[in-house]
User: What shape does this take?
Amino acid sequence: MSAKKKPQHRQPTKDQLEKELAQLRHALEISEESRTRLASDYANLERRIEQEKAEISQRAGAQWLAKLFPIMDNFYRAATHAPTISADGVLDEDELGRIHRYFVGLKQIEKQLEETLAQAGLTRIKTKGEHFDANLHEAISYEPSDLPAETIIDEVEGGWLLNDTVLKPAKVRVSKG
Assistant: This one.
């Protein structure tokens, strides 16, 4: 058997090690610069996205508010045409007719407003005659009544839902039965 020679590993020279170290430092600098640039680009992207979201939200809000302008115009018109009552407090047929037409007009404006709000997903919570639901209603009183227990007698303040989420519970008076 012949003896195999062990391969000899040459020790790198000091110049080779310094050159390799310099190359590694340069590669590290490039990597650090790239990481810093990427972090900066990402932060700028996040800022730009947030700004665009705010602008979109603002435009959407403005478009929605613009739908309220005709309703507000109708309220202002109604206010300028409010009927007057004679000083003696006695109403003739003509005055009663004007008052009636005025309130019919106000109810039409109310309906127009509720329809516009419904387009945005906002709906009024049903109350009078409904069964009390603590998720939708806030009882301000429980009163004796001919109605069955837990039935809403009357609404004190309206409540509102936005796409089935309660924004404001309705304040109601509830029957004890």
Observations:
- The first strand starts at residue 122 and ends at 124.
- Residues 121-177 form a domain with the Nucleotide Exchange Factor Grpe; Chain A, domain 2 fold (CATH 2.30.22.10).
- The two ends are 112 Å apart (CA to CA).
- The chain has two helices and six strands.
